[in-house]
Design brief:
- GO terms for molecular function: 2 iron, 2 sulfur cluster binding; 4 iron, 4 sulfur cluster binding; ferredoxin hydrogenase activity; iron ion binding.
- It holds the Pfam family Fe_hyd_lg_C.
- It comes from Thermodesulfovibrio obliviosus.
- Keywords: 2Fe-2S, 4Fe-4S, Iron, Iron-sulfur, Metal-binding, Oxidoreductase, Repeat.
- The chain has 19 helices and 19 strands.
- It has about 600 residues and is α/β, with parallel strands linked by helices.
- The strands form six sheets. A five-stranded mixed sheet has the order 2-1-7-5-6, with helices on both faces. A four-stranded parallel sheet has the order 13-12-15-16, with helices on both faces.
- Strand 17 and strand 18 form a beta hairpin.
- The chain binds iron/sulfur cluster (SF4) (3 copies) and FE2/S2 (inorganic) cluster.
- One iron/sulfur cluster binds next to helix 4 and helix 5.
């Protein structure tokens, strides 16, 4: 590729042909502000450069109009100026135009403090809003249990559309109408819940404003904690162990497990449990299910079932492939019914009074917990007063808000320990938080169960990392077990199309996580969640795995105890009653 030389703010810079002015400026050490532009939404090179905000405009010598730098390629000999009075005035006016019809209630806005629109107005010293226009008046869409849409705060950057369509291939959102009436909305103008949206929250991660955010359920938890009749237990997902600290100034990927437990105890929860414990339980059930399918000519490849966005994706787009999905519930939905049965019995607590809260990296977990079939404890006790197995799901971002509300000095908390019975998790469970982790954890257990031998090496490096599709094979007593791992629904779709076409028949087990990087990149995680953040969080996950004393699910003493005292055996009667589920073909609306 030929090179192009141009001048930016008096500096000569040479870049390959086709480079944008924005990137050339970066190379010259010149920062041009952007708002709608987004690169690397996820793991693949996804470039969103629709040129909607015009905050990145620059002056090009010889051109009458300013040009947007994020999507204009360089030309030989170009002379560019990035902060002339004309450029600065245009950027400010563009922002003022955006603010003129925006519902500007920053102090009470869910994005206050982490809003890119707010931040860029501060950066560009916007101190007034000269154009005074009519305010937008679109209805707020709170139909989804996971995502809240407020189109009155939308700046039409369309990042959400790219995340949904290109990264996730769900394509649930559209730009509709023109001018003042233009709106980004669920396809066909339907409420979000009535579309094929899988509730993954990747749109919320990239939305620069509060136009798409997670549903806030923190007040339900405050009320439950304050209710003397309720025994409120909380569980924390594997990925939260290395992400919550970011919001309190700790380096990305720091293991904050002990501090998180301490914070939850200070918030007033009666017992603090670890979803890592039920991730180990999931491995027992899912691993045995896989062995059973292999031995009995069951439907293969078996798909993992921990990611609720992925499950809805199969139900919506590939209902014919539902029999491939493991019948195991996700770790969140395993801990819920066990808290209201086994734990209730052991502690002598009326299960009606047990209130289960989950801290999850994922917005789709809110949807999952609300699925009508997730009421196994109610069926177990034949008691309609027990409703859902998991009463409230909070995302990482919501827990962060509760910790701030309570005035807890998170970064300086001492480390505390989870409560017993459902508080011990292994390294295998910890790696559930990263793409490839469920697969690796399953192999650590399946290998030892099938061969009766100790694994020579615990680390399955082939299934780790940000490559979108990864594979590995393991010999177990003469059978070569072949596995695949994919993350992001775009990558999942590639695999699903092949399976539908009759390919990949010789694979046994496929792990899919709806979010890029796995749960560490979940739609409920701290913002920003860039590729760099995802990689550092993954590093933190594997570091924690390495330092844990037990690294295989079947060696977890609390898991051994529940089988001995309550469940008896994996895939047994009680397991089926409490830990397994079914799926629902949904298809296009
Ligand atoms: S979206 Fe940003 S600019 Fe708009 S009200 Fe919220 S915090 Fe303020
Ligand atoms: S939650 Fe996921 S599927 Fe739903 S609109 Fe957002 S990106 Fe699309
Ligand atoms: S909802 Fe958010 S991401 Fe989507 S167009 Fe509006 S401001 Fe941009
Ligand atoms: S960042 Fe270039 S037009 Fe918005």
């Amino acid at each position: 590729m030929a090179n192009v030389t141009l001048t930016i703010d008096g500096q000569k810079v040479t870049v390959p042909e086709g480079t944008t002015i924005l990137k050339a400026a970066e190379k010259a050490g010149v920062k041009i502000p952007t708002l709608c532009f987004l690169e690397h939404v996820g793991l693949r090179h996804i470039k969103h450069d629709v040129g909607a905000c015009r905050v990145c405009v620059v002056e090009v010598e010889g051109k009458k109009d300013l040009v947007s730098s994020c999507n204009t390629p360089v030309e030989e000999g170009m002379v560019i100026r990035t902060h002339t009075p004309k450029v600065i005035a245009a950027r400010k006016l563009n922002l003022e135009m955006m603010l003129s019809d925006h519902h500007l209630d920053c102090p009470t806005c869910p994005k206050n403090g982490i809003c890119e629109l707010q931040a860029i107005c501060a950066e560009l010293n916007v101190r007034q809003i000269r154009p005074q226009g009519e305010k937008k008046d679109f209805p707020i869409d709170d139909s989804s249990p996971s995502i809240m849409r407020n189109p009155n705060k939308c700046i039409l950057c369309q990042r959400c559309i790219t995340a949904c369509k290109v990264l996730q291939t769900v394509d649930a959102l559209e730009l509709y109408g023109n001018g003042f009436d233009a709106v980004v909305r669920p396809k066909g103008g339907l409420p979000l819940i009535e579309t094929q949206c899988v509730a993954c929250g990747q749109c919320a991660l990239v939305c620069p404003t509060a136009a798409i955010v997670e549903k806030d359920d923190t007040w339900k938890v405050w009320e439950a904690i304050a209710d003397p009749n309720k025994h409120v237990v909380v569980q924390t997902a594997p990925a939260t162990h290395v992400t919550i600290g970011e919001a309190f100034g700790l380096p990305v990927g720091t293991d904050i497990t002990g501090k998180m437990v301490a914070a939850l105890k200070r918030l007033g929860f009666d017992a603090v449990f670890d979803t890592n414990w039920s991730a180990d339980l999931t491995i027992m059930e899912e691993g045995y299910e896989l062995i059973h399918r292999i031995k009995n000519n069951g439907v293969l490849p078996q798909f993992t079932s921990c990611s609720p966005g992925w499950i809805k994706f199969v139900e919506e787009f590939y209902p014919d492939l539902i029999p491939h999905i493991s019948s195991c519930k996700s770790p969140q939905q395993m801990l819920g019914p066990i808290a209201k049965t086994y734990y209730a019995e052991k502690k002598g607590i009326n299960p009606e009074n047990i209130f289960v809260v989950s801290i999850m990296p994922c917005t789709a977990k809110k949807y999952e917990a609300a699925r009508p079939e997730m009421n196994a404890a109610s069926k177990y006790w034949n008691n309609p007063n027990i409703t859902r197995d998991v009463d409230v799901v909070l995302t990482s971002r919501e827990l962060i808000r509760m910790i701030r509300e309570a005035g807890i000095d998170f970064a300086n908390l001492p480390d505390e320990k989870y409560d017993p019975i459902m508080g011990e998790g292994t390294g295998a469970a910890q790696i559930f938080g990263a793409t490839g982790g469920v697969m690796e954890a399953a192999l650590r257990t399946a290998y030892e169960v099938v061969t009766g031998k100790t694994l020579p090496r615990l680390d399955f490096e082939d299934v780790r990392g940000m490559k979108d599709i990864k594979e590995a094979s393991v010999n177990m007593n003469g059978v070569t077990v072949k596995v695949l791992v994919a993350h992001s629904l775009g990558a999942a779709r590639q695999l699903m199309d092949k399976i539908r076409a009759g390919e990949l028949k010789d694979y046994h087990f496929i792990e899919i996580m709806a979010c890029p990087g796995g749960c560490i990149g979940g739609g409920g995680q701290p913002i920003p969640t860039t590729v760099e953040e995802r990689e550092l969080r993954i590093k933190g996950i594997y570091e924690r795995d390495k330092k844990l004393p037990i690294r295989k699910s079947h060696e977890n003493p609390e898991i051994q105890a529940i089988y001995k005292e309550f469940l008896k055996e994996p895939l047994g009667h009680k397991s089926h009653q409490l830990l397994h589920t079914h799926y629902t073909p949904r298809g296009k609306k």
